[in-house]
Specification:
Helix content is 49%, strand content 18%. The chain is an alpha+beta fold. It has 2 domains: 65 residues, lambda repressor-like DNA-binding domains (434 Repressor (Amino-terminal Domain), Orthogonal Bundle); 66 residues, Cyanate Lyase, Chain: A, domain 2 (2-Layer Sandwich), CATH 3.30.1160. Strands 1-2 form a two-stranded antiparallel ribbon. A hairpin with a 6-residue loop joins strand 1 and strand 2. The longest helix is centred in the middle third of the chain and has 25 residues. The chain starts with 7 loop residues before the first helix and ends with a strand.
């Protein structure tokens, strides 16, 4: 008899719990598989498929079973849960893009022409920058420009 594959959301919950219980940071897990921390965190939260080798390495590090390894390799359904939009951190990103998105669009068009920034050929990074008024969160989106071709 065959059993269903563990849903990515359940695998993500198991990963998050094991990470906390083992006292590991997302950065430590990313270092273990030699991948960027933002990508690794997103993958372990269900937003990217992992290779079999990376999934197995993470599962071994966290003491998780083959069902998690299998789930981490699945293609995701990329969406955002409505309840997550109520989270203040996530909402502030939405708010920032609501306010600055139209200006960024105009500036991309002015600088590059008719096209978009890819979110597939894309890197994102986050870092802390010291500031006298309180530390700053610096988020960098680095996406390939894709021109519209007719």
């Amino acid at each position: 008899m065959s059993t269903p594959i563990l849903p990515k959301s359940e695998a993500a919950a198991l990963v998050a719990a094991a990470r906390i219980r083992r006292g590991l940071t997302w950065s430590a897990i990313a270092a273990k598989i030699d991948k960027p921390v933002v990508w690794t965190t997103a993958a372990l939260l269900g937003q990217h498929p992992m290779t079999a080798e990376d999934a197995a390495a993470v599962a071994a590090l966290l003491g998780l079973g083959d069902e998690v390894v299998e789930s981490l390799q699945l293609q995701p359904a990329r969406d955002i849960a409505p309840e997550l939009m109520k989270d203040p951190t996530v909402y502030r990103f939405f708010e920032a893009l609501s306010v600055y998105g139209p200006a960024l669009k105009e500036l991309i068009h002015e600088e590059f022409g008719d096209g978009i920034m890819s979110a597939i050929n894309f890197k994102v990074d986050i870092r802390r920058r010291a500031h006298p008024d309180g530390d700053r969160v610096v988020v960098t989106f680095d996406g390939k420009f894709l021109d519209y071709r007719w």
